[in-house]
TrEMBL record, chain A:
Residues 15-79 form the MIP18 family-like domain. This is Putative FeS assembly SUF system protein SufT. It comes from the Bacteria. It comes from Cesiribacter andamanensis AMV16. The lineage of its organism: Bacteria, Pseudomonadati, Bacteroidota, Cytophagia, Cytophagales. Pfam families: FeS_assembly_P (PF01883).
UniProtKB/TrEMBL annotation, chain B:
It comes from Cesiribacter andamanensis AMV16. This is Cbb3-type cytochrome oxidase, subunit 1. Keywords: Membrane, Transmembrane, Transmembrane helix. InterPro entries: Cyt_c_oxase-like_su1_sf. It comes from the Bacteria. The chain crosses the membrane at residues 21-43, 55-77, 89-109, 115-136, 148-170, 190-210, 222-242, 248-268, 289-311, 317-338, 373-393, 399-420.
């Protein structure tokens, strides 16, 4: 079923799943916080690749965030294996917070 | 799940290492407030008296130092971007310092400077040596050369110098090792601890945490180095002037240098506050920011003491110490506890349930109502006791100490509620 779904729709579904992961410290979801750098569906591979970062490499909540991201992706795409790639270059910065995220923090 | 990446995910320090420090510090604070109540009469005597010494050491070591030790084991990896070198060393420092502090405080209370005081001082020094080794290795094991790391490392060195000198002063009571009696070295010992340990560490850690908790864009590394220089130069000049003697005019130099460092740090915090992205500032953060403003009180008292009383005015000296330990340091810890402890516990309890939005958030782990009641009791108790000290009103001292006990009790209750939080769905 997944292979027939257009890529944009798959990415939107994955984004929605990741939007449920809340950074407990900031209270904002990881998509609007700008932690998700990319969502890929490699061809001929039975997996979904999430390229993401953390606010700090030694973020105490790092494991909780990556585990939850994987868990929610697995729920949204039961037939695919989630692969989380942690990237610290470029480093996360406040400029990566989305407009919605800024509105939430300003409220 | 497959987790990959050029930089692996770093494990944080186990909650098992950190939580005992928080519990110990909370109990020490409660005990110190009880002693303050039962010994409030001591605050009408000379500051060098057994009960004042016992309360001061309980506040400095049992409350301030144990709390900072615990929090820094958790926070240092975030601050210096390197993992904690050894959790066993962290345990060792907890056990050694945790055993030594009651021995030393009890000895001061009875003013028996025999073996319990010596063993207590020795155990505390060994515990802090383990701490220095642990954090020193954690910092030098990674390539990060941030000002935060410098603040922390130098602060721990000052702490060891403070407790080392403290042990010598204890020995000096029984076997005269120094040129003068221990009282003559007390200002040096106290300021090495207050400025070298507490202030340097709080500035180093606060400079990173305050913008982080406020989600602020503000950073200013050159300013942090200037503060680092001003505080250290101020303290070194104070020690040199104390040891070598000095013209009266030069006495103003150390408080001016330290004052400049404090004002610059105040400016740093103000800029971080102004440039914050998150508009709402929660109650624990408000109390923490208030504590920075509270630094102005001891600074003002220090200038008064130096300019008008050559450093010797009993009531002002007592008020100065009270404003540092029960004012600035306590307000900071009361606030920062509920910015750090809930996250540590949350990570333990809900680590695998981060998503879905169905789990309580870290701030739901403690009672905000109880926190506000604690802040009220603390604020009124602090102001009342400071006025009681200044005006020498025994009844006001007693009543205010009772308010501080209430604050400490509410604090301990809230800490216990957080530590023993059971998993639940929001």
């Amino acid at each position: 079923m997944t292979s027939t779904t257009p890529l944009a729709e798959q990415i939107a579904r994955a984004t929605e799943a990741l939007r449920q992961v809340i950074d407990p410290e900031i209270g904002l979801n990881i998509v609007d916080l700008g932690l998700v750098y990319g969502i890929h569906f490699p061809e001929a591979e039975n997996r979904i690749r999430i390229e993401m970062t953390l606010t700090s490499q030694f973020c105490p909540m790092g494991e909780a965030i990556t585990d939850s991201a994987a868990e929610l992706i697995r729920e949204a795409f039961p037939e695919l294996e989630p692969e989380i790639i942690l990237v610290f270059d470029p480093r996360w910065g406040h400029h990566l917070i989305s407009e919605e995220g800024l509105q939430y923090l300003n409220s | 799940m497959i987790l990959t990446g050029a930089t692996p995910l770093q494990k944080t320090t186990s909650h098992r290492v950190v939580l005992p420090f928080y519990g110990y510090a909370a109990l020490a604070f409660l005990l110190a407030c009880l002693l303050l109540f039962f010994s409030s009469g001591a605050f009408q005597l000379h500051y060098f008296n057994p009960h004042t010494l016992a309360i001061t050491h309980l506040m400095a070591l049992g409350w301030g130092t144990m709390m900072i030790l615990g929090a820094s084991h958790q926070l240092v990896p975030v601050l210096v971007e390197g993992r904690l070198y050894s959790e066993r060393l962290a345990w060792l420092s907890f056990v050694l310092a945790g055993l030594g502090i009651p021995l030393l405080v009890g000895a001061f209370y009875r003013f028996d400077m025999g073996w319990p005081a010596l063993v207590g001082a020795l155990l505390i020094n060994l515990g802090l040596l383990a701490y220095l080794l642990n954090l020193g290795m954690s910092i030098t094991h990674n390539s990060n050369r941030s000002p935060y790391a410098a603040f922390i490392l130098v602060a721990i060195c000052w702490l060891l110098l403070t407790t080392g000198l403290g042990a010598v002063l204890v020995l000096n009571f029984s076997w005269p090792l120094l040129e003068y009696n221990s009282l003559a070295y007390l200002p040096m010992h106290a300021h090495m601890g207050i400025i070298g340990w507490f202030l340097l560490l709080v500035v180093g850690v606060g400079a990173r945490l305050i913008p982080m908790f406020l989600i602020s864009k503000y950073t200013n590394t050159p300013l942090l180095w200037a503060i680092f220089g001003a505080l250290n130069l101020g303290l070194i000049s104070f020690i040199l002037f104390t040891l070598c003697g000095h013209p009266l005019l030069l006495q103003i130099i150390p408080p001016l240098l330290v004052g400049a460092g404090i004002l610059l740090f105040g400016y740093y915090c103000y800029q971080a506050y102004r440039q914050r992205i998150r508009r709402q500032v929660d109650a624990p953060m408000q109390v923490s920011l208030l504590s920075i403003a509270l630094l102005a009180l001891p600074l003002l008292l220090a200038l008064l003491l130096v300019l008008f009383y050559a450093g010797d005015h009993n009531r002002l000296v007592l008020l100065y110490g009270f404003c540092i330990f029960f004012g600035w340091l306590t307000a900071l810890i009361l606030g920062m506890t509920f910015k750090t402890l809930p996250f540590i516990v949350w990570n333990r309890v809900y680590h695998l349930q981060c998503g879905r939005g169905k789990t309580p958030s870290p701030k739901d782990l403690f009672s905000e109502r109880q926190f506000r009641a604690m802040a009220f009791c603390y604020g009124s108790g602090f102001i009342g006791f400071a006025l009681g000290l200044l005006l020498q009103l025994p009844l006001l001292l007693k009543a205010s100490a009772a308010l501080l006990i209430a604050a400490a009790f509410l604090y301990t209750l809230n800490v216990a509620r957080t530590i023993w939080h059971k998993p639940q769905r929001a």
